Amino acid sequence: INPYALKAIREKDGHTRSSLARAAGISPQYLTDIEQGRRGAKPPTVKALAAALGVPQSALQSHPDPVGAGE
């Protein structure tokens, strides 16, 4: 999972970390750790996050650069 993609999609959709974590069935701290690159996400977690965001799992692999890089 690309932490920058996850954060960008979450923010674009207007989710807070807490609301997305709740929708995906994970703790807000775990989501924070994933977004900050401190922990990886296992396949079931990636699937749950993608479903909660309404995007394909592959969308969480895109955006190779940090949000705002190159601007």
Helix content: 40-55%
Q: Would you tell me the structural class of the helices and strands?
A: mainly alpha
Instruction: Please tell me the overall pLDDT.
Output: 89
Ends: how far apart? 23 Å
**Helix-strand sequence:** HHHH
Quickly list its features:
71 residues, mainly alpha, 0% strand
How is this structure best described in words?
By secondary structure, this protein is mainly alpha-helical. It has helices at residues 3-12, 17-24, 28-35, 43-53. The protein is globular, with a radius of gyration of 11 Å. The termini are far apart. The model has no long low-confidence stretch (mean pLDDT 89).
Please provide a brief summary of the model.
With 71 residues, this protein is mostly helical. It is 52% helix and 0% strand.
